[in-house]
Design goal:
It comes from Panicum hallii. The protein is of the alpha/beta class. The protein has helices at residues 34-49, 75-83, 87-102, 106-109, 121-126, 130-137, 155-162, 174-187, 200-203, 239-247, 263-268, 313-317; strands at residues 145-148, 166-171, 193-197, 211-214, 253-257, 279-286, 289-297, 306-311. It has 12 helices and 8 strands. The longest helix is centred in the first third of the chain and has 16 residues, at 34-49. It is globular.
Amino acid sequence: MAKTNAAPPGPGRRTRVLPFLHNRTTTHRFFRLLDATATKTARRRRRRLTARPTRNRRATRPGEPKRPGAAEEPQDQAVGAAREPDAAAEADVDAAVVAGKYWAHRHSLFSLYDRGVRMDAEGWYSATPEAVAASQAARAAPGDLVVDAFAGCGGNSIQFAARGCYVVAVEIDPRKVELAAHNARVYGVEDRIEFVVGDFFRLAPFLKADLVFLSPPWGGPAYIHAPIYTLDMLKPKDGYTTFQAAQKIAPNAIMFLPRTVDISQVEELSWLSCPPLDFESEENYIHHRLKGITAYFGRTAGPPSYHCQNWDDEQAAD
């Protein structure tokens, strides 16, 4: 993934405030068009593969001096250009392969998938199922300003926006931001989401909100092989560092974590604040299969409890 880090303002410079935080109804304009980029890449590749005809070219025998004015053929460069991989094409192939494995769950991830929702390869196995995302968003109050720290393809940001919240969706991968912005338009909530390409950990000290949603990368599908998932296995930084960064933005937080996570470690996070935060954990089921654990901190938590939330096949497919 192409990483783009948003560096904090240097000394002596004024902090640049997101215009979205002043005017929440401003419509986000999406400037970089995926189709235009793909077209330019294809044209460049065709030019690289165009070779000069060699039918009438006379070969030089060993020891024979070269003819005056004869140019040396850049054969190695031509071969190298022909073999140069097209990153965008490879990403599309990877997404197609992964989609084949998770295709049956497409409507569980996005109920409006057939209207043109787009995902990359990682999105197929990392997006929060829509029913779970909607349940998590229901803990926010309409009108809240929510920071989605690892927005991905936009599933959680869309549900918070549909709830009536205003969302700052932070994602370090520009391609994922393109996909998320497109998906927000499919759901008709693009006017409530401001997409930011940047590193959450660098941006956190400069953001303020009512609620932070945290669903950091779990480490890919292989995470399921860990009998007990510990917070230091989260990416790109451990769960303690991630939670402390979120606390600089708001005392209220929601974390979506693997189903085998060590609950005692998650509860310890509530003690990082003074006074300690209220805490609640919830098991999330889709099709009667445990998909993950949601941890609620601060005012998003109800009475101390550990309960289950299940969505059956019909609800998930709606």
